[in-house]
Amino acid sequence: MNLSFDPSSPAQIETPALASYVFDKDDRIEGALAALDRATGGRLKRLAESGELTGKTLEMTLVHDLPGLAASRLLLVGAGKPEKFDGAVLRRVAAAALRSLRAKSVTHMTFLLREGERNVAGSQAVTEGLLLGEFDSDFYKTEKKNGKVMEAVALAAGGGAAPEIEQGITRGRVIAEAQNFTRTLVNEPSNRMTPRILAERAQQMAREAGLAVEVLDEKRIAEMKMGALLSVAQGSSEPPRVIVVTYTPGQMKPGAPVLGLVGKAVTFDTGGISIKPAEGMEKMKYDMAGGAAMLGAMKALAALKPAVKVVAVIPATENMPGGRAQKPGDVQFAMSGKSIEVINTDAEGRLILADGITYAKQLGCTHLVNAATLTGAIVVALSNINAGVFTNNPEWQEKVLSSARRVGEKMWPMPLDDDYRELIKSTIADIQNVGSGRGGGASVGAAFIREFTDDTPWVHLDIAGTAWLDEQKPWAAKGPTGIAVRTLVDLAMSLS
């Protein structure tokens, strides 16, 4: 989709559709909308007075052939209460506008930024929304009933500063395309996204972006004694991979942090011998969303070039119930040397993250963030609204949460008291991979991962409830969300 800036007066822009947003308040027709209202002889105010134009969140008002406007259509999207308006709302408004107009066979549109958003942040949020809204998950439909495509969108600002808006468009495109890259990987069915294929896609992305990449095969993984990862992989005929992608800045300050991004990439999770119920198991192709998010973040950082080194480590495997699969009660040795009693083979993500984190530290990472679709328990606790955040370092956690707030990704801090370690004590090994009692599953999973972090500042993002939309929204298609990409990019930029 082509994106550009149009410096023309909004009323004079010839376009199939001019879109903007209106707030839910008494004086809805103000600023840029007041100028459009004057051009149309007061028709917008009459719409508001009639109750047809309310400004309620994501309510759409589409008007055709307004006298005084060169645009064929005017779409006004409700932006809700102005006191709750921020970049996240603006992103959704832009995405919803695109999806609504595209469904009506509109192929070109102009989006009008209002006062307060005619800057880098505003145009970035709109650009991200437009490109994220463009994404659909129907890759493999051979007969698409809706082959409608938005070919071009112009941003207008009615006198806004062109350099700032163009800068926002450029930055927004980088981040949104990285997030859509992540969504594309997650959307692939598992027969088209094995560990080897994921590694190939990572290599291709890294080459195109100018990043260093290394892929460890099963022989090298065994030589490095990544026993926790190998234990998960042994039930599958598909061999595991460890993908390492590195961004190194042109200049680094002495003693600067090295950010390690570790992502769970189970390309399909049956649960192993502790097999999952059949209903809904097809969704388990998304169990590599954490690893995909790390690859998306690296794609964006290669273009944005922070002054901080970033290393992504993605352990990738299938979890299958084959004849060689590990069994409940088996004892495995992680790369760190710690012994693990495997009580439940469906708690496999924490096993592969254990070796991923150990390797990231070995590569020199001084600060860690891992992302994983780890537990159903986090869905019970937070639904599909917030990702769960766990840490061994409150100061580091606050940096991650600050980035999440800035980019509009909802995340919520969860408890990780030392008492949770008592629940993973094993009678025959150092630790066991699930809790000894009921409840607290998300914190227990985090407590297991923490065992491999030592004193390295670390944050664990449990994205099990937020990595996939189970139903279509006005601003997004059903399917993968690309959660965490924007937060991780902002975090890396803030460190530099």
Description of the molecule:
- With 496 residues, this protein is of the alpha/beta class.
- The protein folds into two domains: 166 residues, Leucine Aminopeptidase, subunit E, domain 1; 303 residues, Aminopeptidase, CATH 3.40.630.10.
- Helix content is 36%, strand content 19%.
- It has 15 helices and 20 strands.
- Strands 7, 8, 9, 10, 11, 14, 15, 16 and 18 form a nine-stranded mixed β-sheet that branches. Strands 1-6-5-2-4-3 form a six-stranded mixed β-sheet, with helices on one face.
- Strand 5, helix 4 and strand 6 form a beta-alpha-beta unit.
- The chain is elongated, with a radius of gyration of 24 Å.
- The two termini are 31 Å apart.
- The model has no long low-confidence stretch (mean pLDDT 96).
What top-tier CATH class of the largest domain fits best? Alpha Beta
Indicate the low-confidence ranges by residue numbers: none
- Quote the average pLDDT: 96
Level of helix content? 25-40%
- CATH topology type of the largest domain: Aminopeptidase
CATH architecture of the largest domain: 3-Layer(aba) Sandwich
Radius of gyration: 24 Å
User: Structural class of the secondary elements?
Assistant: alpha/beta
> How many strands?
20
- Distance N terminus to C terminus? 31 Å
Number of domains: 2
Total DSSP helices: 15
Shape by Cα distribution:
elongated
The percentage of residues in β strands lies in 15-25%
Task: Show the helix and strand layout.
Elements: E1 2-6, E2 18-22, H1 31-39, H2 43-50, E3 60-64, E4 73-78, H3 87-103, E5 108-112, H4 120-134, E6 152-156, H5 162-187, H6 195-209, E7 212-216, H7 218-223, H8 227-233, E8 241-247, E9 258-263, E10 265-269, H9 289-304, E11 309-319, E12 331-333, E13 339-341, H10 349-362, E14 367-372, H11 376-382, E15 387-391, H12 394-407, E16 411-413, H13 419-422, E17 431-432, H14 441-450, E18 458-462, E19 468-469, E20 479-480, H15 485-495
Parallel strand pairs: 1-6, 2-4, 2-5, 5-6, 9-11, 9-14, 10-11, 13-17, 14-18, 15-16
Antiparallel strand pairs: 3-4, 7-8, 8-11, 12-13, 15-18, 19-20
